[in-house]
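Sequence decides. Our protein:
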Amino acid sequence: MLAAARGINVLNLVRRDAGVDELAALGIDHVVSTAQPEWQEIARAILGSGLARAGIDSIGGAASAALLGLLGEGGTLVSFGTMAGEPMQIDSGSLIFKQATVKGFWGSKVSLAMSADDKRRLVGELLQRTLAGELLLPVEAVYDLADAAQAAAASLQPARKGKVLLRP
């Protein structure tokens, strides 16, 4: 949603077929389920001949190589998580011949280096876009703080339709 608001084209990958419809209901286009055997061909068709300039990897493992395969010449693969619980598996041929860059991202380190003015500007943008209805924030459930253990368990459930929140 933020990318679209800034005029940036995004290909969204989800791990289950139902996720395609869920994102479409939020107005998000170009969604491909990696549960489909031909997902990479579908993704390449959407991306076109130049492929992607960047990929964001929160999975790790074999998913890293799949994302690297969708990058065009000189693309960048950014990793910020390892949901697979495995090290990134990257094809050296794709890395070398595409002249790709692989780098890590950790939000707290970026935040420490960011000026207070930039933080205010970015949080202000999020609030403005949320209040304007441009940034939808689906919520699965809201729990009282006293029920934090139940909230934590609910947050780990697959196929949630939104975030799990706590209220004081």
In short: Residues 110 and 149 are 30 Å apart (CA to CA).
